[in-house]
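Progress report, Aim 2. The chain analyzed during this reporting quarter is listed below.
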Amino acid sequence: MMRRYFTNTVFSALLTMTPLFSADLKKESTTGNEILLKQISKGFSQVAKKAIPAVVYIESSQSKEKKKELSLKLKKGPHENPFDYFTEEFFNRFFGLPYSEQQVPSKIETVKGTGFIISEDGFIVTNNHVVENTSKISVTLSTGKKVTATLIGVDPKTDLAVIKINEKELPYLSFGDSDKLDVGDWAIAVGNPFGLQASVTVGVVSAKGRNQLNIADFEDFIQTDAAINPGNSGGPLLDVEGEVIGVNTAIVTGSGGYMGIGFAIPSTMAKRIIDQLIKEGQVIRGYLGVTLQPIDNELANFYKLDSTKGALVTDVAKGSPGDQAGIKQEDIIVSFNGITVDNLSTFRNAVSLMAPGSKLSLKVNREGKTIQLNVVVGSAPVETLAQVGFSTQKLGLKVQNLTPELAQQFGYGNEKGVIITQVEPGSLASEALLKAGNLILAVNRKRVENIEEFQNEVREASKEGRVLLMVRQGEVVRFIALPVE
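Predicted C-alpha cells for the chain:
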C-alpha cells in the first residue's frame, strides 16, 4: 500500500513538472521516473536481503500463572492512562495476549515471536514478554535450522531480553542511531507475523518520543505505520541503510491485527540495556530517590507556571542522592544538564540511563524562585528477585546471576554461582526445601557461575532423568538430588 501510494505520488509530482508541449520530454521524464522507482525498489530489497538472514523465529513455553499476571498488566484504568483509547479492548502484545482468565490456557502455552542476531557468535535480541518465565526457548534460523537458546538476561522495565544460541559465523545486524531519525523517514520492519517467517513491510517514522502509554515502565517509543502484527514482537525496525533503529514491541489494535500504529524501542535506549544484559545479566540504572508527578494545567495555574513542562517532586527518599543534594518536596525540576524537562518520562528515562556516579546539574523552581542543585547519581535498587532471571518448570525454581550487590545482601562473599529468586509452591524444589536466596554452586558436580552454565547443565541432566545440585543455604552446603524429565 505504501509502495503503491509512493509510486502514484512520485509519478504525479514528476509529471507535473514536465512541460506539456513536449512529447519527447514527457517520454524522457517517464523513463527517468521508472529508473528512479526501480532504484527505490532495489533499495528496499537490498535492506531485506541484508536483514532476513539475521532475523529469527522464536518459540517459548510460558505458564498459565505468568500469562494471567501479564494480562492483568493491561487492565489500566482511565486514571492510570491519559490515552483512553489504549485500553484492554484495543491494546495487544504481539503474541496475542489473552484478555481474561477464561482465555488463559490451563497448562503451558507456546509464545511465538521474533528476534534478531547482533553478533556472529549468536547473541539475539528480542522482547522480554516473548521469553520471560520460560522453561525452553527454541530459535529457528532463516536457513530453517532449529536450535535451543539460552536466556542471558531480561529487563521487564523496557521489555527487552537477550538470548544466545551456540552457533558460529552467523549473519548479524548492527545498531543505528535513532536520535538522528526524523519524522517521515522510511522505516522497514522484519518479523514473523502470524508465523509467516521473514515478512518485510515498509512505512515511515510516524512520531518519536511516545511515552505515558503504560506499555513499559521506561518509554520513549518510535511510532511507525510499517505493518506489524502478532508475531512481529522483538523484531527489528530498520532504516534505509539496513541498521536497527528500533525493537518492535507493541501495537494498538481493535481487531488483533494491523491498524497503522506500532511502537518500537529506540536503538539508543535498547543498545545500552542490551550491552548491560550481555555483560552483567541485569541492568543497573541511575537513581535519584525522588518521586515525580507530571504537571497538568491545574497544577501549572496553582504554581503560576507558564507551561506544563517540568516534573513535580512529590516525595524524596531519606538519605537518597536527591535528599543529599537538597531536593525538596514540591520542587519543580525545570531542566537537567541544560536540557529542558518537557515531560516527566523524558527526565526519568535520561536519569535511568546514566551510570551511577554521574554528575547531574538541575535547575529547580522552588516557590517561584529558580535555584541550581548538583546531584551525584546513585544506583537504583536491584530489581525484585522474582522479576528477573531464568525459570525452569522442570525444577520449579527461578534463578539469577549472582551480582556483587546480591552477594553482599545475602552474605556470600566471593563465592560464585546462581542465586534462587523464586520457588514454586508444591514443586520439586519446594519439596526439597530450597528457598529464595539459596545459592546453587554446582549442577551434576560441575561448577556454575552464571545462568547460561546453569541452564546448559540442567538440560544435560534432563537426558539422565536426575539432577544433583550443590547448594549453599546460609553457612551450610547441601547436595540435593531431584528427578527431571
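Residues 54-284 form a domain with the Thrombin, subunit H fold (CATH 2.40.10.120). The CA atoms of residues 78 and 84 lie 6 Å apart. These observations will guide the mutagenesis work planned for the next reporting period.
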